[in-house]
Amino acid sequence: MKPRRLKRMLGSVFTRLLIVTLAAGLAINVTLIVGHLIIRFHTENAFERDLLSNLVLYTEYLVDDLGDPPDQSRAQEIARRTGLVIRFEHPEHAWQTGPLPRFFNLHRAWVHRHTSGMWVGSSRGNHFLRILHGGGELLFIVPRYVRHEEHTLWVVAVMAVLMGLILAGAYFVIRKTLNPLHALKTGVDQVSAGKLAHRIPEAGASELRRLAQAFNDMTRRLDQLLHSKEQLLLDVSHELRSPITRLKVQLEFLKDAETKESLRADVAEMEAMVTTLLESARLRHTAAALNCKPVEMGELIRSLVADVADVKPGVVVGELADVPVVADPEKIKTVLRNLLENALKHTPEDGSEVCVAMTALPDSIEIVVEDKGEGIPAAALPHLFEPFYRPDVSRSRKTGGYGLGLSLCKAIVDAHGGSIEIASTLGESTRVTVTLPRSADSQKL
After folding, report:
1. β-bridge pairing 324-327 and 94-96
2. Domain boundary residue among 229, 255, 284?
3. How far is Cα 140 from Cα 118, in angstroms, rounded to an integer?
4. CB 347 within 8 A of CB 371
5. For residues 16 and 162, is the Cβ–Cβ distance under 8 A?
6. Which of 126, 144, 162 is the last residue of a domain?
7. Is pLDDT at 431 greater than 90 in this prediction?
């Protein structure tokens, strides 16, 4: 797993809550287990002390009951009633009432008490008393209760399964509780992409539900504000057409040719700006303005390059994939013409040529226009597609334009269901990438 991905995963709220839940569950279990072991240790020690003391006293009665030498049949009867294993070893013969407990080893046993002719100890949880009697050695063994140990193992297994189920339940509950946060993240991404109509489900805990409501209210108000702004621009642009037309008519009556030509250029610039505003607003509101049909994009790019062949430093054509694209050829020409003119405008005449290339992807095409010009400040990159925005703060006529070209380009590309991105390094280069779907099915409706 990559370090960045691991860091992002560990930094998520879900992972932290899950870790806290696991740590709390583990701490509780460790506390219970340690407490149980401490209680069991003290209990078993006390039990063993009492057992061994009683075993010593009881053995005196058993030894007397068995006789001297010990009677094997009597030992069998005692073993049947008490569960003890009795063994007698004599130089001439030996017998025992049953099999020794599993893993019982008298030579490796732990001797708790040793007096003259008597040893008291235990081996693997099996307690024993060893005594010299009847010319031989008499051994009494108290076997460990195996079924109790099996029962303990079953209890531990069941506890482990239950703990797993509890943790799995906690996982799904936390996951479900935090689902609104994932929806909120998706909503933020959608709004960042300009989709202000996106709404997130108003569900979950009360705090998260209120957060979702606040987010939806915010996007609704933003959508209304931007719509009002665009509608205002659209209305103003419509209203400006009439006075511009009247100005053009009045200009024809001017006798001063120099003044007439100067005013005509200004009016033409105003008319072009109003036309661009109307076109941009129309494309933002509906994709029905597009007249889509199959276009050989390679031929279209070559024709545009031929139109600016005389503009220094010139344009060089890179690799052009020969694939048809369903698009509005006139609108795409507007986009590429704007990009080529911008690149040439901001590249010194003695600089490197502007490069244009096209790559075919499985479901789309990628057109790249790159120059080695003056570049764009990093702070200006996020605002380049905003109407009337220009990195040139002086807004001098020398650099030209009114900050609507890239805004119109984005509106056209968005209407086609594509995307446009700009990467630039100040003083070095600028790279514009336009991605367009190859079929009309991928375009926005």
Report:
1. unpaired
2. 284
3. 11
4. yes
5. no
6. 144
7. yes
